Model the fold of this input.
Amino acid sequence: MFPPGWFLALDVLTEIVTAIVALIVAVYAFKGFRWIGERSLFYIYVAFSLLSAAFFASALTFAYAWLARLTFAKAAAPFVVLDLGLWTYYGLSVLAFAILVYAYVRQIRELSVVAAVAGGSLFFAAPVFESLMVILLFVILIAQLTHYNVKKSRNSMIVTSSFLMLLLSHIFILFGNIESLSYVAGKMLQLVAFLTLLSVLGRLRGGP
Done:
């Protein structure tokens, strides 16, 4: 989805911060995987590495749009550049969520924590991809709720809340073309969800 013009510069900053947070989550997950050999952490590492790359691609795309003074209404000829960036974002995001769904469905052992997260023109196909991510996140949330019912812990509760925020954030973003404040609320909620997931991994890392 393309952000409202007045939020474009701030969205670039938001995407960069989210990308950095996702990268830190990936690093923590990889270190956790090397420490305890928990395979679910490896899936988190791969998924969040992809999400970090996706958000960096989105930030570069929106930075280009901002510098070129493009808006959803004006973007016509430069669609090739914008489409390339948004195709990259959605492609990597969907792949990341699909990996997390696989990790949940696999369920070959108890998980300490499972994290997820997350535009011929992609601007008109974007709602389809957002809807797909909403469906994938819904599946992940249901799986996490099932896990929480089996193993009730503070970390599991926080992760479940984070997934709920991620699901709601993509629902808000999905309706961003109808109401610009919905897009902004979705982006802010998404960042909070990533930071919450990072806090859980940080706690687990400091636990031992």
